């Protein structure tokens, strides 16, 4: 019988530092910029119209403002 060794094989790291490479796709920059702009518009809209619901609790204000935002002409999704 051949003698066994207790020596473990060293683990090698990937040459690219463990980063998963993905194939070419659509650039993510413009989409992210549009989302940031839409979020900023929504927050400004909420701030502007919050006084209309001052008698409600914050959570209920958010719900009502969200409903109003979805139907608003200032919402970029309604302009598309």
Description:
The chain is an all-alpha fold. It has a domain of 51 residues. 49% of the residues lie in helices and 0% in strands. The protein contains 3 helices and no strands. α1 crosses α2. The mean pLDDT is 83.
Outline of the structure:
By secondary structure, the protein is mostly helical.
- Tell me the structural class: mainly alpha
* Biggest β-sheet description: none
Instruction: Tell me the series of helices and strands, N- to C-terminal.
Output: HHH
Low-pLDDT stretches: none
The helix tally amounts to 3
Helix proportion: 40-55%
Q: What percentage of the residues does DSSP assign to strands (E)?
A: under 5%
- How many strands? 0
User: Per the principal axes of the C-alpha atoms, what is the gross shape?
Assistant: elongated
On the 0-100 scale, what is the average pLDDT? 83
Distance between the amino and carboxyl termini: 76 Å
Whole-angstrom Rg: 27 Å
InterPro entries: HMG_box_dom_sf
Top keywords for this entry?
80 residues; mainly alpha; 0% strand
Blueprint (SSEs and pairs):
Layout: H1 29-49, H2 58-71, H3 76-79
Helix pairs in contact: 1-2
